[in-house]
């Protein structure tokens, strides 16, 4: 199995894009909702949530497309590639979530 190019399609890239897009849609509001103890605060900033969604999907595609095939080759399993892609998709989600946490905490 060869190493995929940057941005090349693979099962890991698809999993990374899916996880990145869905997680990116909600990741900015998670800290605000937790601190405010109100789930409605997940949707308090719809334009920023949409921008995070648009940014997280391609970053998840690239990260998942690199991590997924590497794990798939290491363990010689298709499931490992999907799990690696999902972990790669979590990179932008966690980054945006940490940024959201930094923005809402008192300085």
Protein topology:
Blueprint: H1 11-36, H2 46-75, H3 78-104
Helix pairs in contact: 1-2, 1-3, 2-3
Q: Give the domain tally.
A: 1
Output mean pLDDT. 93
Poorly predicted spans: none
What's the tally of helices? 3
Gyration radius, rounded: 15 Å
Give the number of DSSP strands. Answer: 0
CA-to-CA gap between the ends? Answer: 49 Å
**Into which percentage range does the β-strand content fall?**
under 5%
Shape: elongated
What is the SS-derived class? mainly alpha
Largest sheet: none
Could you state the order of secondary-structure elements as H and E?
HHH
Considering DSSP H and I runs of 4 or more, what fraction of the residues is helical? over 70%
Plain-language structure description:
The protein is mostly helical. It has one domain. The protein is 78% helix and 0% strand. The protein is built from three helices and no strands. Helix 1 packs across helix 2. The longest helix has 30 residues. It is elongated, with a radius of gyration of 15 Å. The termini are far apart. The mean pLDDT is 93.
What's a concise summary of this model?
The chain is built from 3 helices and no strands.
